[in-house]
Design brief:
It contains two helices and four strands. It has 110 residues and is mainly beta.
């Protein structure tokens, strides 16, 4: 199961609203946005029963800033931050290292 919450605020529109001005059209708009996902994923049944599925982080945070001009163009700066997660269903943090890199990482002890 999991929870997700998101928001987006038009900073230019909010400024007009707070100052009491009304403007039907805005040539320039700047929005800030964010979302947070909290996930408690678990496999049920089979050999991996009770383990965490691959690519299922406990939390995921997305943030961003979006500039819009006359509904014709948009530029966005977005970021995603997530907690540790596994690349396999057996929760092996080292899976794939020997296949991709031909061995262990230098300076890393097993």
């Amino acid at each position: 199961f999991g929870w997700d919450i998101a928001f987006e605020v038009d900073l230019v529109g909010a400024t007009y609203a707070l100052s009491g001005e009304s403007k039907d059209t805005q040539d320039h708009r700047v929005s800030v946005l964010g979302s947070l996902t909290l996930l408690d994923a678990e496999l049920h049944g089979g050999a991996q029963d009770g383990k965490e599925p691959q690519y299922a982080p406990d939390h995921l945070l997305r943030t961003g800033l979006i500039y819009r001009w006359k509904d014709r163009s948009k530029v966005a700066l977005l970021g995603t931050f997530l907690s540790d997660h596994y690349a396999t269903d057996d929760e092996d943090l080292h899976a794939g290292n020997s296949q991709v890199l031909g061995g262990n990482l230098p300076g890393r002890s097993e």
